[in-house]
Amino acid sequence: MVYAPLRESVTGYRRLAHARADNVDLVVEFPLSRRPAHVWRTVWAHHRDGTVLGETPVTLSPDGSVHRFVPALEHAAAGFRWTW
Fold this sequence. Notes:
mainly beta
């Protein structure tokens, strides 16, 4: 997923698994002109719920992307959140 400047400031991306999903690969790319100040790998209890089950700070790669491989995801949402 590539994020470019929008009217609204997007602050996260998550993928939801109702049942078990194996080998989930998540990548978010930010343009050079708009890089977030902080990024976290995050797991939420639900795709719309703000309850964070866990998160870890991550560093953008030189090309402005973040990557996470999740071996298995079940009844949760995983992805990234960030602050501008």
